[in-house]
Specification:
Length: 402
Amino acid sequence: MPALLAMTTVPGTADVVVVGGGTIGAWAAWFLARSSLGEVVLLERDTLGQGASSRAAGMVRAQGGTEAAIRLGMFSRRFYADQRALLGIDSGFVPQGYFMPCFTDPEVEHARQRIALQQSLGLDVRWVEPAELDELNPSMAPGQTLGASYAPGDGYVDPPRNVLAYTAALFGAGVRVCERTTFTGLLVEGGHVAGVRTSAGDVATSRVVLTGGPTLAAVGAAAGVRIPSHGARHQVVVTEAHPDFSPDRLPMVFDLRAGIYWRPCEGGVLWGMSNPEEEPGEATEFDTAYFERMRQRMATLLPTTGKVGLRKTWAATIDYTPDHLPILGPAIGADGPIEGAFVAAAGGHGMMWGPGVAKAIADLTASGETDVVDVTDLGLDRFDEHGRSRLDPDPISLPFPE
């Protein structure tokens, strides 16, 4: 099997081409290489992992609000946990335990319903009363909540290490990586994929997977496919180290009401946020004003954050879909579905659902079916001409723009 190469030219033919070298595209290419389809080519306009994948916070949870979200989270969490045995390298997964606190009676009721669904699908999750939550979160201000859902197996990965892991996996599987190579169009004959156009030449192929995270809509446009996936600014900070932020005192928490999450990081606490009032679009500048607003909420919940400085701050553009659910299914052009072309998006949960989304789209590409998740309603056909979904949104997600 040929070794992975960072190429400036493309092969004339391939059995399958994957567009995008982020978490979803790279792991999809790896799964496809293991499916015995033949030669897999991965196109990346920059270098592997240079988009949102290397700038993520690395949160991994199976506590989703819909069956699809739960199943994708469970698959991905298990994949990260088993990586070292499978690959000899891993993405740095730590099963830290994850709380989702409630602050009102309706939130408690919704959480209990969510837990029942999660448990019915086999997730190890339970309701935690306020006193136990305070006991298990010694650095969090006591008496703030009405309880929380808690999944001890949820955790986080190290995003740069995830990029390293999938790069090594691609190398081992013999995927041909064409970096600094832009996808510019889809070649279609009689409703079937015939090849792809790139900045380095055409590649004849009968199968294509379109990914791209925040740039997926542009990738779709180049292929003649309308994909209602958008980008939004997401901000992450890491505080200075403090004894209160020792990992044994700091389980992960998602304050769904404010759209803030946190986890341990390098002796401090990493926390992230998105502003739902912002206009969608690409943005990588840090919004200090919004950070200061959210910092007040953090100081109320995790008081020591108000007493320490920051070690790191960054902003990245991450993707989202109108219903916060993944896109998994055939590409649909002006004349209908394009046979052999598939679209994959994680709906703002790239690190969290990435391996599950990647495996599902690889299965669909190779055989037309998958047992990772029921994809019946997850295709592009769920959106109308205005990009509105017929599905109820996943209620457990960051607050992205409407």
